[in-house]
Amino acid sequence: MGIIILGIESSCDDTSASILIDRKILANVTANQEVHKNFGGVVPELASRAHQQNIIPVVDQAIRIAKVQKKEINAIAFTSGPGLLGSLLVGTSFSKAFAMALDIPLLDINHMHAHILAHFIEDEGKESFPEFPFLCLTVSGGHTQIVLVKSYYDFEIIGQTIDDAAGEAFDKAAKIMGLPYPGGPLIDKYARTGNPEKFPFPHPKIPDLDFSFSGLKTSILYFLRDQLKNNPDFIKNNKNDLCASIQHTIVEILMNKLKEASHKTGIKQIAIAGGVSANSGLRNALYDRQKKHEWQVFIPPFEYCTDNAAMIAIAGYYKYLKKDFSSQEVTPYTRYK
Fold first, then answer.
1. Which residues of the chain have pLDDT under 50?
2. Domain 130-300, second-level architecture
3. Model pTM score
4. Domain ranges of the chain
5. How far separated are the first and last CA of the chain, in Å rounded?
6. I want to staple 130 with a disulfide (CB 3.0 to 4.6 A). Which of 78, 134, 171, 184 is the partner?
7. Which residues pair with 138 in a beta bridge?
8. Cis peptide before 133, with omega less than 30 degrees from 0?
9. What is the spatial distance between Cα 272 and Cα 310, in angstroms, rounded to a whole number?
10. How far apart are CA 68 and CA 63, in angstroms?
11. Domain 4-119+305-321 has CATH 3.30.420.40
12. pLDDT at 32
């Protein structure tokens, strides 16, 4: 019948369960948490409580959609980190209990590795997959990295942010503008009808392949503060152009470093992953550079960009093939290993 993996994702505020058979996804169910919109960001304690409420219904629904029996599941893969500790504990505890009850192997998964391996999910109509080695720009609310992917199990970070992540820069810029949480997707929405060159923002001069976004956030804050002194309606009157200019700046910073990484390594297999890979500006920029730099570009489907259990299941599948199983003593971690 093939190898059946149950994937569990609970690193932040999305509770997700997925059933995979070999490299094909049979079910991928996610419960979102709306409560955080009232606070302008994720509240860790509220997130962990919501995970406790959601995890059993989500897993049950995934198993029903996939039409498999619990006894047919070969292993359970779960996010062990990085992420919010309380959220991770819920997924870890459930996975341990589930694996012990069914007497099946346990597979602990690095959240960022899973984002990258989502490229290897076999979807209907998908014909090409990245070939090793390839470069992957992993961009989310908590991480911004350029990863040299040598195999399903061998990942090397060759560049990363020294302070804030690109996703955080999107959300903080949106918050400064008074947009509701989560603000990143709203910036993307308004940017589509704006002028990306209307308001130029500075690019940080960071050596090698590393990134920095804290200075950009500060420059946006001071720029808007000064403009609002002269015109209280400045943001309202220039919302689309502001969003387009902010998005353009962040995307250009990312693309310039990715171009440099490709030049230094000689690798032209280029992929993106993580929540910010759903951003239309980033996706379009990557396609624009595909011909210019003779890259072969890989962009994940939208459903595999944000946090989801399908990516955890596919990462678990490859660990299962390697028989790289975890013990019941495994503990979650908050920072990237």
1. none
2. 2-Layer Sandwich (3.30)
3. 0.95
4. 4-119+305-321, 130-300
5. 34
6. 134
7. 145, 273
8. yes
9. 17
10. 6
11. yes
12. 81
